[in-house]
């Protein structure tokens, strides 16, 4: 099923005024207030995987609040005012802890050279969009969550080698995240780097196990 309006997991959406009129599943009073306060600050919500019984045009969104509180929203797509892909590596540099910035710069240079669009999600993205020093998402144990979109086999293989080598050299921050496949489903980069016979892939509508060979066949090797 095609995601409504071209939305994908880890994208971000800003909602229209009167967003609560478009709820497919009610929120309790506390959750509604927290979501409203977040949105009143001009902040977006993250796109999450849809559920099997969702109707065409439905969307699933999430709000993460400091302290690991999570609020899930089930809405009609008409509530969306605009949407965007995950913020880029350089977009979040000033938000990231100082000790992360060299690694972010290195990743930005690497993925730029490889032609691999890369976005940030997870705690760093929430901190970026919160724009509020009193809302603390990042801790000393936070991972750096990334979504990579390689378009060919050569850039994918180089990217996996470089990420694996980086992790062997330094552990802070731990690099987590996903490789988006050409069919728009995604697989954890660490799992793909291990080259098992089968891997779990996630799309907007499903989670499934797929053979490694079928996943790699989705990529075309870039001509020299």
What layout of secondary structure does this protein have?
Elements lengths: L11 E4 L13 H12 L4 E4 L9 E8 L3 E8 L3 E5 L16 H14 L3 E4 H9 L13 E5 L4 H17 L5 E6 L5 E3 H6 L3 E5 L4 E5 H5 L8
Parallel strand pairs: 7-8
Antiparallel strand pairs: 1-2, 1-5, 2-3, 3-4, 6-7, 8-9, 10-11
- Count of helices? 6
Q: What fraction, in percent, of the residue positions are helical?
A: 25-40%
Indicate the overall shape.
Answer: globular
Euclidean distance between termini CA atoms: 35 Å
Structural class: alpha+beta
Explain the overall architecture.
The chain is built from six helices and eleven strands. With 224 residues, it is α+β, with helices and mostly antiparallel strands. It folds into two domains: 81 residues; 127 residues, no CATH class. The strands form three sheets. A five-stranded antiparallel sheet has the order 4-3-2-1-5, covered by helices on one side. Strands 6-7-8-9 form a four-stranded mixed sheet. A two-stranded antiparallel ribbon has the order 10-11. A hairpin with a 4-residue loop joins strand 10 and strand 11. The longest helix has 17 residues. The radius of gyration is 18 Å and the shape is globular. The mean pLDDT is 94.
């Amino acid at each position: 099923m095609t995601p409504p309006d071209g939305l994908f997991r880890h994208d971000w959406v800003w909602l229209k005024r009167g967003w609560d009129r478009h709820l497919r599943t009610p929120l309790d009073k506390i959750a509604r207030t927290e979501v409203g306060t977040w949105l009143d600050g001009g902040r977006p919500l993250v796109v999450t995987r849809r559920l099997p019984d969702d109707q065409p045009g439905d969307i699933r969104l999430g709000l993460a609040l400091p302290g690991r509180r999570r609020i899930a929203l089930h809405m009609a797509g008409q509530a969306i005012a605009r949407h965007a892909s995950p913020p880029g590596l350089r977009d979040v540099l000033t938000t990231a802890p100082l000790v992360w910035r060299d690694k972010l710069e290195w990743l930005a240079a690497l993925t730029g050279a490889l032609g691999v669009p890369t976005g940030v999600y997870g705690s760093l993205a929430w901190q970026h969009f919160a724009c509020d020093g009193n809302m603390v998402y990042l801790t000393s144990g936070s991972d750096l969550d990334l979504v990579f979109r390689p378009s060919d086999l050569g850039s994918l293989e180089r990217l996996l080698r470089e990420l694996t080598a980086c992790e062997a050299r330094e552990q802070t921050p731990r690099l987590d995240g996903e490789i988006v496949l050409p069919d728009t489903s995604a697989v954890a980069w660490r799992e793909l780097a291990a080259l098992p016979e089968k891997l779990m892939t996630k799309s907007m509508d499903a989670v499934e196990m797929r053979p490694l060979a079928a996943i790699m066949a989705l990529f075309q090797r870039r001509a020299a």
